[in-house]
Amino acid sequence: MRDTSHTRPSVRRMLVGVSWFCAALTHAAPEDGGLDLLLVNAQVYTPDGWMQAMAVRDGLIVALGSNAAVEKLVEHGTEVLDLKQQAVFPGLHDSHVHPMFAGLEQNSCGFPAGASRQIITAAVAECANRAQAGEWIVGGNWVGAVFGEGEQNSTFLDAVAPDNPVALTDEAHHSLWVNSRALLLAGISADTPDPQGGRIDRDAQGEPTGVLRESAERLVRAVIPAPSLNVRRQALVWASQEMLSYGITSYTVASVRRGDLEPLSALSAEGLIRQRVRGCIVWSPPGNELSALSEQLIEKRHRYAQPRFRPDCVKIFMDGVPTESHTGAMLQPYEGTAERGMLLIPQAVLEEAVARFDRQGLHIKFHAAGDGAVRAAIDAVAAARARNGFGGPIHHVGHSTFVDSADIPRAITAQLGWEFSPYIWYPTPMAAVDVRRAVGDERMRRWVPIRDAIDTGALVVVGSDWSVVPSVNPWLAMETLVTRQMPGGSERALGENQRITLREAFELFTGNGARMMGHRNEVGSLEPGMRADFFVTRTNPFDVPITSLHEMRITSTWIDGEQVYSAQ
User: Fold this and answer.
1) Tens of pLDDT, residues 158-169
2) What are phi and psi of 276, to 5 degrees?
3) Would you say the pTM of this structure is higher than 0.85?
4) Cα(57)–Cα(78) distance, rounded to whole angstroms?
5) What span, in angstroms and rounded, lies between the C-alpha atoms of 74 and 70?
6) Which of 210, 193, 190 is closest to 201 using CA atoms?
7) Per-residue DSSP letters for 262-297?
8) What whole-number distance in Å separates Cα of residue 118 and Cα of residue 139?
9) How far apart are CA 505 and CA 462, in angstroms?
10) Residue 245 burial (CB count, 10 A)
11) What is the DSSP letter of 142?
12) CA dist 411 to 133, 374, 378, Å?
């Protein structure tokens, strides 16, 4: 019987000779060689059910079974850990994360998700008091829903920080709110045209309000001093360690740009980033000022590859986000408007690029939040399969916040995967207020249609999109995928017809995540011959109330049989 208490057991090292009760060995280890590590008195989650013990040699799992049967494999020098009925699971995969943003934001001018105007005012004022005159104040993350008509503008920030340029990102990281000094430094005026794939919000007189959408952000970001290489390295290391504390042993960096490749590669080579990491290099279409640079980065990708870092993925932004910005590309107009959002790349240009990357064997991650963008991405992959044939990479549509029901089964025929972002839930007003207000209640019924996608048999994974969300905690996502409620439970549910089971949620984070990253032959489940990437939980998540799952705690995380995180 499993121990369901919340009392934290200590992990105890024991020498050979401890007597364990008899049971059969489910998977026999090879006879040659001894063991490096043996976990006993555990609850090990395997495809064949729960096991008591797991043996590891040279970073590989060599045996699973009962305590007594695995005991005979132990020799002098084997480290034996008595887990006191703690649970052991294969390492989790976060299929969409922004570790650089997450790390840098720890020292930015921040305020809580969904902060009111008063809280934002106080936070920015405090940052201005600490800053030197003329020093940039950068931070976030604001939500448009807290502002009334015309309230969010540059003069709001001018009053709070008159001596400093200010740039605050929105919660989705797709809009930037700046003050007059920032507009001046960036050279933005009423005469400045909207850039390709972006929009400068303007008032009735045509003057910039101070809110910049999508690629228009870059007009200001180009004049903000870039953080040093050392600061960027520290940001990546901190973010990776944070993920290890949640049992995340593999992750995909969703948007890799010029300043990310070098530190990601170097830190992986130095062993300061321990996880298996995939990097998705952002591609910019022809006509964009970053197009040539993005092509160069993709061409030079192999120079940055490391055993645990593979920059073999291309990121393509199809649209923005279906918030108050109305930049997510929708098939039907936003509520009360004639707007359908922004499709950022002409279809012919997109299909040519997708076919080229598919031919080269590069994985493609599409950012597609609106159902119009999702359809355009599926069309592009279908065109690539028609041109190049099948058997290429399993490209995937990222976010998939809204998907037309007719497009759900098309992923199978196009050999396309789905990635959903279930973390964008009730703790923030993005989904419950901003998105709902933009698209209406009817479309929210199929918000994040993960049940429909799983039922087709398509490959489905999940990604946090951290730091768009406040926490990278995967247990928050697993709980709310099952309940479709606020963490901890709530009367209201969001898209309750899209609920899935806890076992399905685990598979999305483990085997499916590994398959999408292209290393399912190495990790994704605990079986003989697989690499020993796993984590240990204080209590068994299958034995606690589902509404408490977001409180799950990790006691240790291991990669290739080496402990890389301990809660002690």
Assistant:
1) 999 999 999 999
2) -85, 125
3) yes
4) 9
5) 7
6) 210
7) HHHHHHHHTTSS-SEEEEEEEP--TTSTTHHHHHHH
8) 16
9) 9
10) 17
11) E
12) 53, 10, 7
